[in-house]
Amino acid sequence: MTTTQKLYNAVEFFSAEAPYLEQFKRVFREALVAHGAPIINAQRMTRLATDALQNFSGYDYHLRMAELIACDREFERAIDGNFEAFHAVHKYMSYYLELPAMPELRVAN
User: Fold this and answer.
1) What are the φ/ψ torsions at residue 58 (nearest 5 degrees)?
2) Given CA atoms 83, 89, 94, 99 in this order, what sign does their dihedral have?
3) Within its chain, how far is the Cα of 62 from the centroid?
4) Dihedral sign for Cα atoms in the order 86, 10, 34, 29
5) C-alpha distances in angstroms, 38 versus 11, 21, 42?
6) What burial letters (b/e) apply to 92-103, b meaning 16+ CB within 10 Å?
7) What is the pLDDT of residues 3-31, one digit of tens each?
8) What is the mean pLDDT of residues 53-74?
């Protein structure tokens, strides 16, 4: 599974309930680290993503993540200019935003 798919699945199955919350944190953080992001960046990004999703009252967690990645200054500071961290979350965001246009996935759903 690619980093993008791991991040997508982590968000797709997000839940604030135990033990799923800890599973989200672990999968999200490990996907970033496996992509080459430093552990400290991955930990900060995971904390911010967790907080953002826990406090989100909408129904589309992926849309909230896209907003966090694109617009949140604290999340940008957590990336801290690290290319691998930046690349991982932007690939995830692109994947999410392009998903409806992928005909092979629309048929499967």
Assistant:
1) -85, -170
2) positive
3) 8
4) positive
5) 21, 22, 6
6) bbebbeeeeeee
7) 999 999 999 999 999 899 999 999 999 99
8) 95
Q: Residue type at 56?
A: F
Helices 3-12 & 61-71 angle (0-180, nearest 10): 120
Task: Give this prediction's pTM.
Answer: 0.88
Which residue matches tokens 């999410």? Answer: 96
Q: Which residues make Cβ contacts (< 8 Å) with residue 79, sequence separation at least 6?
A: 41, 45, 85, 86, 89
